[in-house]
UniProtKB/TrEMBL annotation:
The lineage of its organism: Bacteria, Bacillati, Actinomycetota, Actinomycetes, Mycobacteriales. Residues 13-329 form the NADH:flavin oxidoreductase/NADH oxidase N-terminal domain. This is FAD-dependent oxidoreductase. It comes from the Bacteria. In the N-terminal section; belongs to the NADH:flavin oxidoreductase/NADH oxidase family. It holds the Pfam family Pyr_redox_2. The keyword Oxidoreductase applies. The keyword Transferase does not apply. Keywords: Flavoprotein, FMN, Iron, Iron-sulfur, Metal-binding, Oxidoreductase.
Amino acid sequence: MFDLLTSKTTLAGRIAQSRVVFGAHETNLGVRRSLSSRHTLYYEARARGGCGVVVTETASVCADDWPYERAPLAADCGPGWRAVVEACRPHGTLVLAGLGHHGSQGSSAYSQSVLWAPSPVADVVSREMPAEMGEAEIAAVLAGFAESAAVAVAAGVDGVELDAGPTALLRQFLSPLTNLRLDRYGTDRARLLREAVGVVRDVVGRDRVLALRLSCDELAPWGGITVDDAVEHLRTLADSLDLVTVVRGGPTTVTRYRPDHHVPAMFNVEPARKVRAALAGRVAVVLQGSVVDPDAASRALDDGVADLVEMTRAQIADPDLVRTVRAGRRPRPCVLCNQECLVRDPRNPLVSCIGNPTPAESDPPPLPARSAERGVHAVGRDECGFQPLAAGSAGGGVHAVGQDECAVQPVAAGAAREVLVVGGGPAGLEAARVLAATGRRVRIAERESRLGGMVARTAVGDREGLSALTDWLADECLRLGVRVELCHDVTAAEVVAADAVVLATGSVAATWPVPGDGSVSVHTAAEVTAGRQPMPGAGNGVLVWDPVGGPVGVATAELLAEAGGTVGVVTPDPVLGTQLGRTGDLADANGRLQRAGVARHLRSRIVGIADGRVELEHVHTGERTTIAATAVIDCGHRLPDDDLVRIAGAGVSGVGWVAAGDCVAPRTVAEAVREGRAAAAELVAGWTP
């Protein structure tokens, strides 16, 4: 099934160990503007996992192009590129240095200088007006590409990739939306791209790969680049290129480049097929576009859609993707949530994944002492403290841990102690999986009738795909011999009697704070999505209360509207789903709600319920209005289900225990998985067989 996907391929005379590409993306792993040791470990993990081609984070070719705080600068990347090459080459992985310039889609916040662009067209997102480039600025950019390529070649890379994607200056010159020039770079919009390819080819020669990431569809048919335009550009460039990655997106559709699960996966199949047919074997084509399923990726290769597949987010989720597929197992799934892997964010988060929330570190810090007050492990990123399994180790023998290839030491022969994991949500499942992978005996006790916790109970409608992660964790636990007890509500006595305990009891709904006369029923989002409350029928007025601004409120409103109810959303924010800006779904979510007929009550809060009506108060003016309703769905914050945590913390139990996930503080899946992993590490660190 996966013969072509996992087979070797040759590019510019260089052999890649598979046809899977780890594409260029922001990581925030840099130090100042250089690639760091974290980058090296990050890319090496994918190489060790079977990746065929690694494209490093796109580095700016000019110092005044500084699109985000930790954006690499090619002039400073030589030592980093060399380290990545030395780490990846032993695994048979080709390393391409990503090179680019962001033009008007950069930022002046860090450079403190003007943005340069083909024409004075303000960026749609930042609204900043760039300066039009003259001949001198264009010459400086071309020199920057040549000099940057020379630095990369001196570092020993296998080639370079030029960025002409959704946020690239090279695309801005190609596009009628952003290039309004009347000179030779306007009458011939592809001129700068041809010149950039030419100067870089002169530097890298013919024995290294020259790749191009090209936006082949700006999704702006009224005036943007179309697939036919891209095909003509590529026909002209074919003799100079070895590899082209077909992407989409432009100044008005940047979020369409790497969308979340609302956009069907494999969305660039037809553009890639058309490009490959036009190039007729002259240039290898890479399929990009939410390619996260190995089965679908393999079918695309078998069907002749492309020569390679870019599975970037899939390999953020599971660095061992190719190796796992070769072994006949399912890799850890990417659920296309964009919650941890999109890091173009003022908070400067490190690249991560909700299912594998551990960025690369060379030397994980020691585990901190347990809090004396509550016994809760204060979990942080990469505080796993696991030691690598020795080569040939027979103790457990299962590699099952995250991006930094760490694994806990296998249990000593004859150790009979059992770990009780209370709660089968993502935190409990991850703790059980990691512990079982080392040979520990593990038992999960879950009060519900299925594993998965709140993820499983709320994974309906547009969130259904999220359950793929907890399903995978559950399957891995069963494969590793974890004993599962469903519909089992653990008592304090069981905690006291256990050898060791992971408390992952999750969360409970907060008490509804608004008084009412019972004329309007109040339910939680989990009750509705889990089917514990009947879905409101057509004609019923339902209000969704969303003070969080995350995906739950939006998803609940969409689900209710789909069921035929008359739905409104009340939020204190000026826009619905404010937190969705981080995942790229903010504008699309509001569009979906508007098309579904969902009413939006912005800058408002619920202050009263009586006589079948809900009273709203404007958060700024204090003005009050009432709306007829039959039900209110509370999508507010939940509270820790910490009864057992408090019992253990009070010293009733002398057993070794760790709390993880929502029972510490209700947050996201990423924190739950991270803390479940660290909880297993803490127990193992203190384990005495």
